[in-house]
Amino acid sequence: MAGGVTQDPLARYRAKRDFAKSGEPQGQTARKGGRRLVVQRHFARREHFDLRLEIDGVLKSWAVTRGPSANPSDKRLAVRTEDHPLEYGSFEGAIPKGEYGAGVVELWEDATYEPLNGDPAQALAKGKLEFLTMGARMRGRWALIAMKKRDKAENWLLIKERDEFAESDDSLAERFDTSVASGRRREEIERGAPSRREAGQRETRAKRDTRQGARAPTPAFTPPQLCETSEQPPQGEDWLFEMKYDGYRLELATGAEGAKAYTRTGLDWTTRFPTLARAAFELPCKNALLDGEAVVFDARGLSDFTALVAALEARDQAPIEYCAFDLLFLDGQDLRDLPLRSRKEKLRKLLEGHSGAIRYAEEIRGGGASVFAQVTTAGAEGIVAKREDARYRSGRFEDWRKIKGDKREDVQIIGYRPSKVGESFASLLAARETPEGLRYVGSIGTGYGARTREKLAPLIAEANKTKPAVSAAAKLPKDAIYLEKPFSAEARFGGWTGEGLMRQARFLGVREDRARPRKSEPARNSKALTPVTHPDRVVYPADGITKGDIAAYYERIWRRIAPHLHERVVSLVRAPDTIDNLFFQRHPLPGMNGSVLKVDCDNQTYISLNGEAGLHAAAQFGAIEIHGWMARRDDLDHPDRLVFDLDPGDDVSFILVVQAAADLRDYLAALGLRTWPMVTGGKGVHLAAPLDRSLAWPETEAFAEGFARVVAQQQRKRFVATMSKERRKGRIFIDWLRNKKKATAILPWSLRARSGAPVAAPVSWKTLASLDTGSAFNIHSAPQLPNEWDAFDNARQSISRESRELIARVLAGGARRAL
């Protein structure tokens, strides 16, 4: 303050320029609240890139000599320059010779950003600003870090964070030599050539920036509504009819944590469809969840699945578009209970003026027979009929129906017939999923070019000597070779025979968006498991996940969770109704049969699950979460594992939790303990160390507590070792209390009783470093994960006497060693 007048943040900017000559905007300080990110390539005396972030009504600016690099190993020098007005973010042109900054200015990036470490002005003042952007060129998480000030220059470093958008080289700046706004190159801007882009883009961007405001959380994956099959279109004016697209069903989610693309089974395919994710992030909303189909259109305007697969294999995003036909969430509101016509009206309005890769899937009201005839005559696959007054429900329901013109089928490839002419195979053997299980539906003999055979080679390489459990198995060829791991595919065929087999079937492509069916495992004798009662009861109301889905999940991942359950005393989190009403079950319930074992300890009776039947029984009793002791029932006095739970305060980002986990891993390794990480399905990360059971509870508990307290003492700004929520603000609680006798920790592969049905997923350190949330995997996607804890089950280690004594001495103040 000087003389009662606030200093003008644009004073330096204006003092350096003669606006009558330079053509640059004079501008003014705007109201706070925007989040615009701009990068301008400046062909001045020394070429550089100017990074500008909207903070406090101006564009805070840095000159980045070689431009942004998407390689996290590159630390680009960013020299702070004067603040610029917001209007400068749209400036592109040639500054005349003799003027300050003479040369061509090209708009290289124009997007929005989300701060990741609190208020951006405060973060800037503290010397570290972390942000997320999903621009056309800069994508993912970035950081600006201030260097120690040595002279008048204010030097910073621009660093790309390690995420799915990180690259292995520094080619980002040089790959793009045109304006992101006008499509012009340097020489075209210099001579004043007209823009190559439609003028409407600027209006769309302005509309987007106005509506986005403060972002809302990115919605989680929602299991999609699926279609029943119908032979004829339904009649009546209460039906809407849409084109049936032949592509990949995707949900696009956008919000404060960025944009995601999910397959129909919940797989995260953001890296497969980065252009669609970026287009979703640019939508004018606080957050949204769209349902639709990723497609490639042919010259006739029809979706072509084979062309889509080819585009993905070639990493060519240009022809891929997204046909959005439903809107589940918008601006923080759940729209699923609204009638379809209302959801589509909101979707149409959201996409108005949007010229990106997302288009609105048009519908026609009534006249289904006529619509079907026109569509199939034009060569399309068919239509989808939807009741206009129906709410959105996860699962397969009659108010959505698909009516196909040509015959296409999603099948499971269970084997092949060997070739007699030297080919890799003669035909593939297909089965179809039915309510009673897989049913053999015939062989697919055509559609295999050289590239297709090359892609199929690894999928059919592993044979299984056991005939798969399918109905109509008598029709399987006698010379069939069966696959160890069946896979999903799409086939076109001429019709059905009287025996239920496909006629004239042609292979169209592998369906990578569909989960592989579980391999038949005769030794498990799943038929011996009693079906759960009330399998259709919805347990996760917001997600449509049922009791039957939970039982099916645990049956599917049985072999993964088995080593962690074996003879372990457990506690269960049960939902007799829904996850809104939970019970923590430590002791046996009346009616629990022999598959749930009783374990006596200190005059109390606890429970242990006896193999797969015990896990199935737990699901029957409404169990969702499975928490385990650190000891097994055959030796309750000697723990077989040590677990540290990193529980962050509400204001601590997940990337800081990941960094903390890596640091604790290294500290424990220095003490002779190897650890494995697990994302908990919530905000935190567990570090687990297997033990050889040579130590008793008092020894392991003392070490766990001592280690946590030593780390918290030596790094007070990062960690605490007490449960206090107040002390946890801005820090991470190293929860060592899991290592007390009878205390429990969530077991690997357990579901969590939280919206979205996340899973406590054991991962590798490499995988952990790539994640941006502790709830990255759920009931749909977790079974697709590789088992990255193979070595955990066979590891044999103990906490050495030297390490235990060292921790005790440091804690007592008798040693000064820093971890």
UniProtKB/TrEMBL annotation:
Residue stretches spanning the membrane? none
Residues in ATP-dependent DNA ligase family profile domain copies: 313-464
Query: What keywords were assigned to this record?
Result: ATP-binding, DNA damage, DNA recombination, DNA repair, DNA-binding, DNA-directed DNA polymerase, Exonuclease, Hydrolase, Ligase, Manganese, Metal-binding, Multifunctional enzyme, Nuclease, Nucleotide-binding, Nucleotidyltransferase, Transferase
Checking Pfam families in the record gives: DNA_ligase_A_C, DNA_ligase_A_M, LigD_N, LigD_Prim-Pol
Tell me what reaction this enzyme catalyses: ATP + (deoxyribonucleotide)n-3'-hydroxyl + 5'-phospho-(deoxyribonucleotide)m = (deoxyribonucleotide)n+m + AMP + diphosphate
- Cofactor(s) required for function per UniProt: Mn(2+)
Map out region (Disordered) in residue numbers: 1-34, 169-234
CDD domains per the UniProt record, alphabetical: Adenylation_DNA_ligase_LigD_LigC, OBF_DNA_ligase_LigD
Mind listing the GO molecular function terms for this protein? ATP binding; DNA binding; DNA ligase (ATP) activity; DNA-directed DNA polymerase activity; exonuclease activity; metal ion binding
EC number of this enzyme: 6.5.1.1
What processes in GO biological process is this protein linked to? DNA recombination; DNA repair
Renumbered to this chain, the Basic and acidic residues biased-composition regions fall at: 184-212
Q: Which InterPro entries match?
A: DNA_ligase_ATP-dep_C, DNA_ligase_ATP-dep_cent, LigD_ligase_dom, LigD_PE_domain, LigD_pol_dom, NA-bd_OB-fold, NHEJ_ligase_prk, NHEJ_LigD
Q: What is the name attached to this protein's record? A: DNA ligase (ATP)
Give the originating organism: Methylocystis bryophila
